[in-house]
Design a protein that fits this description.
Elements (H helix, E strand, L loop, with lengths): L1 E3 L6 E7 L2 E6 L2 E6 L19 E5 L5 E5 L7 E5 L2 E5 L14 H14 L4 E5 L5 H8 L3 E6 L2 H13 L6 E5 L2 H11 L5 E4 L4 E3 L5 E3 H13 L8 E6 L6 H11 L6 E9 L7 E10 L2
Parallel strand pairs: 1-16, 4-5, 9-10, 9-12, 10-11, 12-15
Antiparallel strand pairs: 2-3, 3-4, 5-6, 7-8, 13-14, 15-17, 16-17
Helix pairs in contact: 1-2
């Protein structure tokens, strides 16, 4: 099963093929590599009339943006009542993963339905797409990421959305933060995590999802309150199946009431085919 982020107005995938995706971000059209796109393009994506910039990979690793026309250094787009800053960065990123809107909507609905104070922990929280959505839904959010610049961007997104409080920002290694929270006895009603395939903490801590995810989720399970709402794992790692996330949640939350859902996450395209963008595993305490 694939869940598609179909409610965007300011973003769309125009076309895909030959390892690239052509996207509209507001008024700006970007062409970026995508490892999932292994089929042939149905048109010349590089010749698209409105193309603003292309991310070109380097044979030596990394890459750079090649601008076809004048592009703002940064601009904003909206999703429902949320606002986000978009800025082309190194390694092809823009500062937002639009497919995650499916997960924002799912957990936001759970928060609104709870009709009680809700504390949520967002780990590997990047530029705060989920943090902003969760806070807007009424939760008190703790946002944790090892990259100071990304945490600062999360604050900008919150201010753009009109949030002047409700989010606590932490620059830290996520595993170290979780272990400290366990020792402090702190609890959360919801946990969201978006772990990278590989990464380093602020002090050089190594992260590899294949070996780190299961013990990490085990530790996070200890932070759930007695009557939690949810735990969400999102993974972009190619080849990590939804069932893997479901199994991890099932084993780590054994004995708790509730249900577990596992699914692919994706985006609709103007070509009429879905673009896969990773996997999600969601525990819900009904």
């Amino acid at each position: 099963m694939i869940r598609l982020a179909e409610e965007w107005k300011d973003y769309s995938v125009i076309a895909t093929g030959d390892g690239y995706k052509l996207e509209r971000w507001g008024e700006v059209v970007l062409l970026r590599p995508d490892p999932q796109v292994i089929w042939n393009a149905q048109r010349d994506l590089f010749a698209y009339p409105g193309l603003s910039a292309v991310y070109r990979r380097s044979e030596k690793g990394g890459g750079a943006w090649e601008y076809k026309k004048s592009v703002p250094e940064k601009w904003t787009i909206g999703y429902r009542d949320l606002r986000f800053l978009i800025k082309p960065m190194g390694f092809k990123h823009t500062g937002l993963f639009p497919e995650q809107a499916v997960n924002w909507d799912a957990v936001s609905a759970l928060i609104r339905k709870a009709n009680r104070p809700v504390k949520v922990l967002n780990l590997f929280a990047y530029t705060g797409g989920a943090s902003v959505a969760l806070c807007k839904a009424g939760a008190e959010v703790t946002h944790v990421d090892a990259a100071k610049g990304m945490v600062e961007r999360a604050g900008e997104n919150a201010r753009l959305t009109g949030l002047n409080g409700g989010i606590r920002y932490i620059v830290d290694d996520c595993m170290k933060f979780v272990q400290r929270e366990i020792r402090r006895g702190n609890k959360y009603d919801g946990i969201v995590m978006d772990p990278p395939s590989y990464g380093r903490g602020p002090s050089g801590e190594m992260w590899k999802i294949e070996t780190g995810l299961y013990p990490f989720v085990q530790s996070c399970a200890r932070l759930l309150s007695d009557d939690p709402l949810f735990m969400l794992i999102n993974s972009y790692t190619t080849g990590l199946q939804p069932c893997v996330l479901a199994n991890i949640l099932s084993l780590c939350l054994k004995g708790r009431d509730g249900r577990i859902e596992a699914y692919e996450v994706g985006l609709p395209t103007e070509e009429g085919i879905p673009l896969p963008c990773g996997a999600g595993g969601l525990y819900v305490n009904d």
